[in-house]
Amino acid sequence: MRPESPVCPSLVAWGNAWLAGHVGLDEAADHVEAAGGPVVAGEVPLRKYLANLRSEGLRELRLALPAPGDPLGLSGPPSFNSAAVDAGQAAIAVLADRNLGFVPQPDRRGSSYVGVLLEVHDAGPVRHDLPSLAEAERELSDAMRSATEALTSVEGPAQHRPERPERGGELAPGYPGRAHRVSVLATRLAAVLRVADERGLTSGQLAVRGAALRDLDRAVRRALVAAHHAIFEPVRNP
After folding, report:
1. 163-166 contacts, C-beta under 8 A, 24 or more apart
2. Integer Cα distance of 87 and 103 in angstroms
3. pLDDT > 90: what percent of the chain?
């Protein structure tokens, strides 16, 4: 499952909107499956699995967008962390007495069926060192400014740029307007990072460019995580 696939972000956004009473289960599941096709957790269809989790005390869903050396949103165990880093994403279900982690993988049964299989793992406790939405937005703004300054100082062949900004990043009903804006911006910046082209640059230019893009990538992932958790932020920080 590619890290840029929106399966886990969609699951967290629409699952939390459902838990908060802003949408129904069917609407939430429809939006998640629009991102990657039919979804099963283990061998259970997504709707039934979420309903079962709610009966077991499901409180919220949290997003993890880790990268090698930066386990953003993860708190173990190692087997879950490793699978999430390989996938570039995971979702964590917070229940009354335990946490479960979901890592998406392509689910291909036959030549025509393409969907998503959520591998189910035990997950560690919720991390409390993740940024608030305001903190993440400031970090993203600083990283954008620093990256712009660094990249404009690097002379080299013209780089490919998308003809129009990539759409996406919209959250579900019930999220604050600020969270929507941050998520959309971060999603567009993630698209820019994916098409960044380093060909034709010297090793020194690559070092400058690489550092700037790594810092921006980290800020983008932190902004997306914060935006997807913002629906419950007033509850956590009264």
Report:
1. 165/191, 166/191
2. 7
3. 62
Q: Please spell the DSSP secondary structure of 201-233, one letter per residue.
A: --HHHHHHHHHHHHHHHHHHHHHHHHHHHGGGH
pTM for the model: 0.86
Name the residue type at position 215.
D
Q: Residue 138, Cα to own-chain centre: how many angstroms?
A: 18
**Whether the Cβ atoms of residue 59 and residue 231 lie closer than 8 Å to each other:** no
Tally of CB atoms within 10 A around 89:
29
Residue type (1 letter), 59: R
Mean pLDDT of 185-210: 71
Give the separation between CA 234 and CA 217, rounded to whole angstroms: 27
50 neighbors 58 (Cβ within 8 angstroms): yes
**What is the distance in angstroms between the CA of the first residue and the CA of the last residue of the chain?**
37
CA distance 149 to 157: 17
Nearest partner of 102 among 1, 25, 34, 23, judged by Cα: 1
List 63's β-bridge partners, or say none: 91
3-state secondary structure of 142: helix
Buried b vs exposed e over 3-39: b needs ≥16 C-beta within 10 Å? bebbbbbbbbbbbbbbbbebbebeebbebbbebbebb
